[in-house]
Amino acid sequence: MNLVLFTAGVLIFERSRERRGKTEVLEEKLDAYANIADVAVKNGNNQQQTLDSLLSLFPSNIRLSLIDRKGVVVFDNAIDDVSTLENHIDRSEVAYALKNGVGSNIRASVSNEQEYLYYAKRFNSYFVRVALPHDIDVQNFLKADNLFLYFIIGLFIVCLVLINLIAGRFGKSIEQLRYLTSSAEKGLADSMIISFPDDELGEIGNKIAENYKELEQQKRKVTLEKEKLLRHVHSSDEGLCFFSSGRTVEFYNGLFIQYLNIIIDNAHGNPELIFSNSSFKELNDFLSSSEKYFETQLNKQGKTFAIRVTVFEDNGFEVIINNITKQEKTRLLKQEMIGNIAHELRTPVTSIRGYLETVLEQKLDTNKEQEFLAKAYNQVIVLSDLIQDVGLITKIEESPQSFKIDKININKLLDSLKSDLEIPLSDKRITIEQNVPDKVAVNGNVNLVYSIFRNLTDNVIRYAGDSVVITISVYNEDKDFYYFSFADNGVGIADESHLTRLFERFYRINEGRTRDSRGSGLGLSIVKNAVLFHKGTITVKNRADGGLEFLFTLPK
């Protein structure tokens, strides 16, 4: 279409230019006639006679007019009575001559209705107008030569054929490229089969298709990784927020807002509050520096938060808030436990060392030597029990998944316990009464459930006194738990303020009580941890008739 319009434009322009050139040739001839008429008028005495005589020298078809500067026709060889003519000042050729010196126009005469090629020229006091009839001869003269028309049409046909040949050569490649783009818009580019011709454009098309498929695959991978990252961020137990280099929020999870509201004591959903709240002064000081990593801790509302900031290459950064209250508590407990263990180890180790040094360095009789060795052995047992109990507590807290869960019949377990403790129970004249129905079976780890009843019984043996009765019973049940009572009628604890601390590690009612009775100081702590492992609860109280009663639950 563009080629057709271009060709048509060239033809129109060339024919117009050729017609104008021929018109200018005629106008040059008419201009010469006008100049001759002007000379004749200036040299003659009578304008009418002079112009009449001059016409004999001009071609017979020439129309000659003399018009004064006001537009009044003074002479016209085609009109007998010029006084009947209208004023010609508004005739287009005269108006052009008045303005530009010369003017021409092809139009029909108003006076005789014949079409003329008019040519007017302005002189000092008049206009000379010369006209040729616009007849067949003039029209043929002005007609453009068709040779150029034939040449342009031929050239157009040749170009059209060449274009069709080129389009036919590259048409399939273009069609396949269009198919590729339409498939890409619909998201079907990966599944489409495209075959480009074996030419230059086809080679480029194949490269475009390969690059596009590879780009789409990489785009999907990036999208998938982004989705994984966002899921991870949302499910993370850390509060995360990403900021741009201009400190505008790009993304954050709900936990970040939750932690932020705890720290700033104001329920608000805008993460940018960290830049204005005094609690984050250290963080804002860091952001004003050139450092790339920052870490600190905040204590708010009884909780401990770890805050980390990482600055990226584009000066964007992430802020991570993590609730480390539990970790800090665990760390402090472990620190305290290590101190307690060191304290507990010091006395038996010192005793063992003293006994052995005495045996090795002094000459003792056989009985005394055996006595010292027996005392050292007893202290070794204390150390062994302590290490075993510490290991059990650590395993419950740090590796609960390592304990195997089975169905445990409580009466059978208690029978085994009485058998194991038959001698110490007999020595203290302690009896155990089992008020547990035969059907009672709990779901738990047999070693931990055993350690609950064993440590409670050991506690009675060590501290409750002689001739004590232990009563073990199930006093209630619901759809999930059995409710157990472990009671004794021993000495109990006079100062009830100690009851709330009995389950603490290494807690003593008096300083020498545990060591004197060869206990590790961890028995009741093991009991509580074992009950908690089974999702149960435990409490202790003084009985009205004397002694202690432990109330705890174990799962059915």
What would you note in describing this structure?
By secondary structure, this protein is of the alpha+beta class. The chain has helices at 2-43, 47-55, 92-100, 136-142, 146-185, 200-235, 254-264, 281-287, 325-361, 366-398, 410-420, 422-427, 446-463, 513-516, 523-533; strands at residues 63-68, 73-76, 102-108, 115-122, 126-133, 239-243, 249-252, 293-300, 303-311, 317-323, 406-409, 431-435, 441-444, 469-477, 481-488, 538-542, 548-555. It contains 15 helices and 17 strands. The strands form four sheets. Strands 2-1-5-4-3 form a five-stranded antiparallel beta sheet. It has a five-stranded antiparallel beta sheet with strand order 7-6-10-9-8, sandwiched between helices. Residues 512-517 have low confidence and may be disordered. Strand 8 (293-300) and strand 9 (303-311) form a beta hairpin. The chain has five domains: 2-142, Beta-Lactamase; 147-228, no CATH class; 236-321, Beta-Lactamase (2-Layer Sandwich), CATH 3.30.450.20; 328-398, Helix Hairpins (Orthogonal Bundle), CATH 1.10.287.130; 403-555, Histidine kinase-like ATPase, C-terminal domain (Heat Shock Protein 90, 2-Layer Sandwich), CATH 3.30.565.
The count of strands amounts to 17
Shape: rod-shaped
Largest sheet, spatial ordering of strands: 2-1-5-4-3
Low-confidence stretches: 512-517
Please name the CATH topology of the largest domain. Answer: Heat Shock Protein 90
Structural class estimated from helices and strands: alpha+beta
Oligomer: single chain
CATH class descriptor name of the largest domain: Alpha Beta
Strand content: 15-25%
Q: Mean pLDDT score, rounded?
A: 81
Number of helices: 15
The major pleated sheet works out as: 5 strands, antiparallel
User: Terminal Cα separation, in Å?
Assistant: 90 Å
CATH superfamily of the largest domain: Histidine kinase-like ATPase, C-terminal domain
Alpha carbon gyration radius: 60 Å
Into which percent range does the helicity of residues fall?
A: 40-55%
